[in-house]
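Hi R.,

As promised on Friday, here is the backbone we talked about, encoded as structure tokens. Could you run it through your design pipeline when you get a chance and send me back a sequence?
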């Protein structure tokens, strides 16, 4: 049984991993909701702090 050259198989492995990661990356980026951070409204009045009823 002849010994196979590992070089093309290693390249195929790397190429398949790159394709797999690229597919997952595009799926994650397209499915993630784009929530931009919002600053708190400084003009609104703040409510009083809430306390536990048994304290």
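Update: got your reply. Pasting your designed sequence below so it's all in one thread:
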């Amino acid at each position: 049984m002849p010994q196979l050259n590992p070089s093309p198989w290693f390249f195929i492995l790397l190429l398949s991993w790159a394709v797999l990661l690229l597919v997952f990356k595009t799926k994650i980026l397209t499915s993630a909701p784009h929530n931009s951070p919002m600053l708190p409204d400084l003009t609104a009045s703040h409510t009083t702090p809430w306390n536990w009823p048994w304290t």
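One thing I noticed while checking it: Helices lie at 6-31.

Thanks again,
M.
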